[in-house]
Amino acid sequence: MAQQQQQQLSAKKQQELQLHYTNYKNNLQNIAQKIGDVEQESEEHKLVLDTLDPLPQDRKCFRMINGVLVQRTVKDVVPALRTNSEGLKKVLDDLLKQYKSKQDEMEKWKKKNNIQVVQQ
């Protein structure tokens, strides 16, 4: 009977470890998805800035603000785009740091619990 209880405890411990591992993997995957989204948006900002930079400052252009297309001049739009682009770079740096720290935390947890992944 004692052996049966030990097996139940071992199975429960194994389930808990598996659940914990799955949570770590899901968190890393979510952060990676956010990183991809921010990188894509940053590239779009860069493309628009590269397109607008050589244009005359008084040329009209259109910008989507909260789902509404508004007419502005290049002079009005470029500074806002640069600010947004810098903000996206900052967010991207923070997400990369967060991903790295979660990855390190997961590696420490794997070593602490002697986890060896058969397939990744």
List the helices and strands and how they pair.
Blueprint: H1 2-52, E1 60-65, E2 68-73, H2 74-112
Antiparallel strand pairs: 1-2
Helix pairs in contact: 1-2
Structure commentary:
It is a single chain. 75% of the residues lie in helices and 10% in strands. Strand 1 (60-65) and strand 2 (68-73) form a beta hairpin. It is mainly alpha-helical and 120 residues long. The model has no long low-confidence stretch (mean pLDDT 91). The two termini are 36 Å apart. The chain has a two-stranded antiparallel ribbon with strand order 1-2.
Please name the defining characteristics of this protein.
single chain; 120 residues; two-stranded antiparallel ribbon; 75% helix; 10% strand
Please list the strands of the largest sheet in the order they lie side by side.
Answer: 1-2
Instruction: Give, in order, the helices and strands.
Output: HEEH
The average pLDDT score comes to 91
The proportion of residues forming helix, as a percent range, comes to over 70%
The best one-word shape is rod-shaped
Characterize the largest beta sheet: strand count, sense, and whether it forms a barrel: 2 strands, antiparallel
Strand content: 5-15%
The tally of strands reads 2
Intertermini distance: 36 Å
Radius of gyration: 24 Å
Overall structural class, as computed from helix and strand content, comes to mainly alpha
Distinct helical segment count = 2
Uncertain parts = none
